[in-house]
Amino acid sequence: MHQLSKGLSSPGRRRAGSWVPMTAAWAMAAADSPSAALRRRDLCSRGIRLAGKMRSDVVDLLDTYVERQGLDASASVAAVEGVPVAAAERWDEQTGTQRLLENLAAYRAFRALLAQMLEEQREQLGEADAALGRALAAVLLQVSAFTYHLEELLRLESRGPPSEEGAGPPPLPHLGLFERKLRGLGVLRELAQWAVRSARDLRQLAKPGPGSGSAPSLAESP
After folding, report:
1. Deepest of 3, 36, 43, 95, by most Cβ within 10 A of its Cβ?
2. What is the CA angle 56-58-64, rounded to 5?
3. Tens digit of each residue's pLDDT (9 = 90 or more) over 189-201
């Protein structure tokens, strides 16, 4: 009887010892479950719509920005430090998680850049150009909402979003008024390109297989 008791208790110890790896395996299986796949497709579909709306609003904002700041719409703007570039090498080889992480880092940077642009615009023009301020604030809200959406997708992938501590863009150099205007133009142009890339990335993520496909044409709208 004593031996039988020992025999019955032994599997219990083995099961307890394997609890952690079984839990990790369960989490991975849950991420690939049909319900998780449906949730992922739903989030991706909503994200694609958000990206399309954001790009449309950024294009409208660009027109307003150029007009109110007295700039030439065809003005050439050099690469701006701290502004993430939408073009990606070997885009078709990226995994879904890589796509999400790059998008998240980019939109966190744009959130900070747009907030600074809005502050500078208010200091420069005050209430004299409320329309431009409202348009900037509206796009900033969309960028913040899209950032949260990407974080939700990362949680669904069984990987929480990385911490923002120390992940912000580097401090921007002090620029004159005209240089700040050009920097803002560069920020908005690149944000419009990111909205195109994000829609492509989310379409890839919504597919059942690993992220793959042809490289995105950033001139094409979502």
Report:
1. 43
2. 110
3. 999 999 999 999 9
Angle subtended by helix axes 96-125 and 177-206, to nearest 10: 150
Residues with Cβ within 8 Å of residue 100, at least 6 apart in sequence? 150, 153, 154, 157, 201, 205
Give pairs for 169-178: CB < 8 Å, separation 24+: 169/82, 169/83, 169/109, 169/112, 169/113, 170/81, 170/82, 172/81, 172/82, 172/116, 173/81, 177/124
Vertex 160 angle, CA 199 and 198, to 5° = 10
The predicted structure's pLDDT at residue 69: 87
What pLDDT was estimated at residue 137? Answer: 95
Residue 137 half-sphere exposure, CB side, CA atoms within 13 Å? Answer: 9
pLDDT tens, residue by residue, 6-58:
444 444 444 444 443 434 343 444 445 668 788 889 999 999 999 999 999 99
Q: pLDDT band for 170, please (50, 70, 90 cuts).
A: low
The single residue listed with the structure tokens 């694609």 is 48
Residues constituting the chain: 222
| Contact between residue 135 and residue 143 where contact means Cβ atoms under 8 Å apart | no
